[in-house]
UniProtKB/TrEMBL annotation:
<dbReference type="InterPro" id="IPR036757">
    <property type="entry name" value="TFR-like_dimer_dom_sf"/>
</dbReference>
<comment type="similarity">
    <text>Belongs to the peptidase M28 family. M28B subfamily.</text>
</comment>
<keyword id="KW-0812">Transmembrane</keyword>
<keyword id="KW-0472">Membrane</keyword>
<dbReference type="GO" id="GO:0016020">
    <property type="term" value="C:membrane"/>
</dbReference>
<dbReference type="InterPro" id="IPR039373">
    <property type="entry name" value="Peptidase_M28B"/>
</dbReference>
<dbReference type="InterPro" id="IPR007484">
    <property type="entry name" value="Peptidase_M28"/>
</dbReference>
<dbReference type="Pfam" id="PF04389">
    <property type="entry name" value="Peptidase_M28"/>
</dbReference>
<feature type="domain" description="Peptidase M28">
    <location>
        <begin position="424"/>
        <end position="589"/>
    </location>
</feature>
<dbReference type="InterPro" id="IPR046450">
    <property type="entry name" value="PA_dom_sf"/>
</dbReference>
<feature type="region of interest" description="Disordered">
    <location>
        <begin position="1"/>
        <end position="31"/>
    </location>
</feature>
<protein>
    <submittedName>
        <fullName>Inactive N-acetylated-alpha-linked acidic dipeptidase-like protein 2 isoform X2</fullName>
    </submittedName>
</protein>
<keyword id="KW-0735">Signal-anchor</keyword>
<feature type="transmembrane region" description="Helical">
    <location>
        <begin position="118"/>
        <end position="140"/>
    </location>
</feature>
<feature type="region of interest" description="Disordered">
    <location>
        <begin position="70"/>
        <end position="93"/>
    </location>
</feature>
<keyword id="KW-1133">Transmembrane helix</keyword>
Amino acid sequence: MSRHEIPGKKMAYQKVNADQRAPGHSQYLDNDDLQATALDLEWDMEKELEEPGFDQFQLDSAENQNLENPETADLNLDSIQPATSPKGRFQRLQEESDYVTRYTRSVPKSNPCNFCRLLKILCTAIILFIFGILIGYYALKKCPSNATSSAMLDLQLYQEILQTIQAEDIKKSFRNLVQLYKSEDDTEISKKIKTHWTSLGLEEVQFVNYSVLLHLAGPSASSVILGSSGQCFRPNGQPCSEEARTHSSQDLLYSYAAYSAKGTLEAEVIDVGYGNADDLKRIQKMKNTTNQIALLKLGKLPLLYKLSLLEKAGFGGVLLYIDPCDLPKTANLSHDTFMVSLNPGGDPSTPGYPSVDGSFRQNRSNLTSLLVQPISASLAEKLISSPNSRTKNGVCSPLELPDNDERIVNMQVQTVTKFKTVTNVVGYLKGLTSPDRYIIVGSHHHTIYGPYGQEWASSTAIITAFIRALMLRVKKGWRPDRTIVFCSWGGTAFGNIGSYEWGEDFKKVLQRNVVAYVSLHSPIRGNSSLHSMASPSLRQLVIEKNHFNCSRRAKCQETNVSSVQIQGDADYFINHLGVPTVQFAFEDIKALEGPSFLSEALFPKRATKIEEMDPFFNLHETITKLSGEVILQIANEPVLPFNALDVALEVQNSLKGDQPNTQLLALASRLRESAELFQSDEMRPANDPKERIPLRVRMLNDILQDMEKNFLVQQVPPGFYRNILYHLDEKTSQFSILLEAQERCKLLASNETLQEALSEVLNSINSAQVYFKAGLDVFESVLVGKN
């Protein structure tokens, strides 16, 4: 398939007769018809037996029933009169004294044999009744319900598929992949992945290429010169005069901020801490920040947001570092350099539209006016003149430049911009009954122009292991109900360029068809704790999988499943398509407890580092099986395993705070009521095979699939998610845009920003409440129409 063909054409919807009955045929309606037929027969028999004196008979019981059920009070019961009496039909006939004279038929004479005959019939009936009860009891005991048996069969199928995933196979695949990063041609790795996936049997594996603007490292490393001594240092703290150590030369080239301004700046260094609103407010009272150099710590807030505040404050340059106190003790990164990207997503030359042939290219060589240079912690210590040992009594002292000290620094940033080709590898496993509904599974591969960290090899080895296990079952004749799309993205390090361009290219198709996104980005970041990220609608499913599949090494806690901002290619699907997303990863406990957003730094990890964290690749196997079971369940369950009520509960929890907004709380309460009604009235029956109707299941899944789209807002601060259901980190539960607006009020005298944020949240909650209510109305209209 060529790149211009849309996935919808390749995965055209195939009509499948899941039910041979006429459309909309309902067993509820069948039951009503049977009851009405029985009622008519009973009425005809009664008319034959009634005497004329009872023509005007009205039932007290019918009136009482009408009073007890006011919802049916409008019904006209005169036209439907049950032919029964309080004493019973046949008892009433026997009590009539002139019963015999009223009818021409004679009463049968008494016969002694009749009693014996009736007794035999009664005994036979009792024996047959008891025998029937025993048969039914043992039959039900041995044969589970359809729902239970179906669920058990699915679970057994999933386990059979996942059992073929072995750690040793993942290890071999990982080692084969890391040998390819030395290739000078970026397409070499992409070709290897495509060939491997095709050999496993995956359908329609193809390249999707885009020519994009990349911001690359310069011919030589950037430098920082201390004004007081004139000493020159490289970003890792090494003197410029010394020969590069082994591997250092390559590392230094990738110590830069992609899409930063370039040039030279000599100015005073001002320590701004983490660069939040409080830090800037304090500093601006003491010093003139115009065209000065900020010494900034990474973490706690999105880097793009902090740079936007520094830019507005008038700074001209930024030296960016990670405080050693924020890292796990086992991480010795004092002399390590890193790369960051200042690109919010996609090709900067085509913002908001795909980089296809003929597209207009904007001139955006840099995305900020600031000169930004990442430096190691050891160089930050030299700038601050801090002693090497900053740990006393087991307590780490953060790096800090005294306010009254003055440091003059000359910083030089050298980078180049070039148009390069970024390649995505995309393969399909078409669904059997709903091929027009996609579950996207995303990993990423190495881009030769970027840093050569090895987490991409873990990501690619895991997705390949799952494809291998899945295709073994497909070769035996099985297929999932929905289509699974496997993607290996290119250009991730520069701002998720490959996934953004593909998403923008096929946006209309993806908006309609994508059900969920499963991210495999950087799955092994540590080895002490399993960290699960999930959209609110998928949280219950992920918690269930954690309970059943957690590794013995992992500390699996329910509180460890959260909806927080993450790095990687899931960004476009979360923030532009509103797609429910899930991601599993192993982390260090210290990293989870420390500041958020440290993962924005891309360190050049080597293969040996990954294998040190997971020498037997058991953690890789766990991630593969956890992700695989979630993929299988979403792709194969008749009703999508999404929880509407959890979305409403997340909204209510996000409004808790010191000064809750009563209007928002009232609206959130109505949203919860609608979600509860939707879940009980529509989702519960649909999950029972006896009550399941294909047409209504399809309508239900469409509602579940799109419900998170209501929480996409138009305007957010740089680096913040447009999907407000996701928090900045696990330590905050409030809506991130509200927290930021409150912080912004500290810098500005006006509260206009806060009012705008409140309006965005209010409109999102109202949209979701209307969405659920409209869904209920549609289901009710369909049911009434069938009646």
